[in-house]
Amino acid sequence: MVRRTRFQVLPLVALLAMAVSACQPVVAGDAVALPAPKVDSPTAATHGDQVAVFAGGCFWGIEAVFEHIKGVHRATAGYAGGNADTAHYDEVSDGNTGHAESVKVQFDPKQVSYGTLLQVFFSVALDPTELNRQGPDSGTQYRSAIFYGNDEQKRIATDYIAQLTAAKSFPAPIVTQVVPLKAFYPAEAYHQHYFSEHPDNPYIVINDAPKVANLQKLFPTLYQPEQQVVDVQLH
């Protein structure tokens, strides 16, 4: 909770200083599209929607990125890694619940593969070398994690991290966890679609808008504009 209120009450000069010092790794303008996974699930061999769960700092930005990917039918902000009785924002924000702010992605594997979602995740959504933090947010609740739902997701995620590590795609080791998904708990209603509902919020402008812009720039064939996202989620 501290980070949201902080960005609402600090003067503009302080906001800009924090943006330069703390957020730069997350929103760097020189982001590049990473290579596609060598190991992936064939899109033509699957039927029905599938679910993937990712964590990478504040769930507002992660949700926004996936909401703008063609083939994603819904993205939901929430919590994963802890128990049901502590899956509440005020408790999760203390950093002692085992939860990470996470996003559940419901996608059509005939339109976008799990491996492609991973490619976008590592390319524009986070800095996977930051341990228990992203940009201005610190604590275990902001760790990066891939919560796999089955052995295939585990294999694709593990192999992709190994691929990026071998290629030295990042200047430091990747610390993103690959762990089984025990349960996902949706966050409070006011957190859902926060990016589209509050586009002028300073936190969104500084930290999250550049992620969506990089998605559009680096993956133009995957990008879907806001109106399409709304249409998908309303029907």
Commentary on this structure:
With 235 residues, the chain is of the alpha+beta class. Helices cover 40% and strands 17% of the residues. It is built from ten helices and eight strands. It has helices spanning 2-9, 12-22, 24-27, 59-67, 89-92, 114-125, 151-166, 194-197, 202-218, 226-234, and strands at 50-56, 72-80, 100-107, 133-134, 137-138, 144-148, 177-180, 184-186. A six-stranded mixed sheet has the order 7-6-1-3-2-8. The protein has a two-stranded antiparallel ribbon with strand order 4-5. Strand 4 (133-134) and strand 5 (137-138) form a beta hairpin. Helix 4 runs parallel beside helix 9 (202-218) and helix 6 (114-125) crosses helix 7 (151-166). It is globular, with a radius of gyration of 17 Å. The two termini are 32 Å apart. The model is unreliable at 1-29 and 229-235 (pLDDT under 50).
Write the layout of secondary structure elements.
Layout: H1 2-9, H2 12-22, H3 24-27, E1 50-56, H4 59-67, E2 72-80, H5 89-92, E3 100-107, H6 114-125, E4 133-134, E5 137-138, E6 144-148, H7 151-166, E7 177-180, E8 184-186, H8 194-197, H9 202-218, H10 226-234
Helix pairs in contact: 4-6, 4-9, 6-7, 6-9
Could you estimate the helical fraction of the residues in percent? 40-55%
**Secondary-structure element string:** HHHEHEHEHEEEHEEHHH
Mean pLDDT score: 87
**Helix-strand category:** alpha+beta
- In one word, what is the shape? globular
Cα separation of the termini: 32 Å
Number of strands: 8
Unreliable sequence segments = 1-29, 229-235
Helix count from the secondary structure assignment: 10
Strand percentage, roughly?
15-25%
